[in-house]
Amino acid sequence: xxxxxxxxxxxxxxxxWQVLGFYLAVSWLVLQVVDVIGNNFGLPxxxxxxxxxxxxxxxxxxxxTAFVQEGVGGSRSSRDAPPASTPPRTPTSSRPHRRSPSxxxxxxxxxxxxxx
Length: 116
Description:
Elements: H1 2-13, H2 16-41, H3 47-68
Helix pairs in contact: 2-3
């Protein structure tokens, strides 16, 4: 029973209910569009069932991808965050920091002309 409880907790944590709801709503919309286009343009009768089969085959792919990606917003969990004691990294450059006549450093993307 605890494994079922863990699974339900993971489903909530990773927002699979939201993904499932969105997928079902978009699938219903796609089926409505296929039905209207099929009736108006005389598409073969197998188009609507084939689109339903494709949508049903896509459902586990979408849910599996959402499960692996840690939720809808791609939120990071606390275990992925860097430790609080780690100082922020600053970009480094191989050339010395020279100052322009105005006292400001030129951007790093400017080519080094060798003039100080």
